[in-house]
Amino acid sequence: MSKAMWFSRVLSVVLLMSSIRNIQCCICADVHPQKEYCTSDYAIQGQVTAKDVTIIPSDGESLFKESHSYRPSPIGDYFPFSVGFDATKKIVYTVDIEKRYKRNYLTHKGKTVEIIVTHEARVACTVDLYINQSYVIMGNVVNGELTLEPCGSYRDLVWITMRQFFGLKRQYRRNCRECSICGQWDYCDSTEGICTFGSASYNFGFYGDGGNCEIDFARCGKTRKGFCAWLGGEDYRRCLGQY
Fold this sequence. Notes:
Blueprint lengths: L2 H18 L12 H7 L2 E15 L7 E6 L18 E15 L9 E9 L13 E9 L2 E3 L5 E4 L5 H14 L4 E3 L11 E3 L16 H5 E5 L5 E5 L1 H7 L3
């Protein structure tokens, strides 16, 4: 290999590393759906029918916009390095509402809505939903618009367990005011009225989506003795019995 060719390859690697070093990696903590439900403004089941992706540089002018319907988006988490690291990625999902689990004036069964995801383009995690697929989505209303955070709540309908469906329909709502859930990365200064949620009881894939046993099969509610604890049925006990 000539010196010129060797130098060219080294320079290419250096340029590539300098381009990607500012991309921010993100790690999303496991969050119990009951906590997501209680802290959300809306909770729906809906089918995604379209996806629009816009990259907006810091000057506010749209660099490019791509729309996708009838097929999954090929963009995924991609964004061009040329936009600079102050760019914003905006994704707008068009969703046909099939069910409504939490009342909101913007969401009604049979209505078509837009759900907006906005985050820095350099952040690695995003919300990647597929066209013609149904999800349970929970988020907040900001300035009259339905929004969803990159680490927000969206679950493929295929992986929703029966316990989660029961929780979404009635049980989560009943327990929102009575009990709280202390998550993996939460600071909890008290244990009163709290269910501690960690990663100790992990479901190894025999049930549900292979996630946490509490996430898949339990809810946080008051026992007959009046204190908050994880409540579940035989499926929850079977999940815990894997250890």
